[in-house]
Amino acid sequence: MAERLQIGEVSARTELSIKTIRHYDDVGLVTPSARSAGGFRLYTEDDVERLLTIRRMKPLGFTLDEMRDLLAALDTLAGTDATTAQRDQAAAHVADCHSRAERACADLARQLTYAHELTDRLARYR
């Protein structure tokens, strides 16, 4: 049986707040795989990976709906019951998101270079 993690453990592993994880559950992005007898959310490694994917998308400017669409495409590609057309559509969507993520990374790298240049310039006046 797969290990089940409580929300506090998931929060520590993903560096997401418990409030944020609950919000992602409420909006349907990551539903815990199980509940304890007491009703506590229990997460699997797959759930943690899903949360990490979301955490990586957020600083790149993806909206909740865009995150949901990408996760659905990834689910389609990971599953075995999709038609060829569904898999092709999912692969195209993942490719589009990949291109967008690459552009966002380039923008962030440029901004980081500017930030380093500014801190170097200001350090001369210390």
TrEMBL record:
Keywords of this entry: DNA-binding
GO MF annotation list: DNA binding; DNA-binding transcription factor activity
Cited Pfam families: MerR_1
Thylakoid recorded as keyword: no
Domain HTH merR-type: 4-73
Protein's name according to its UniProt entry: MerR family transcriptional regulator
Biological source species: Mycolicibacterium litorale
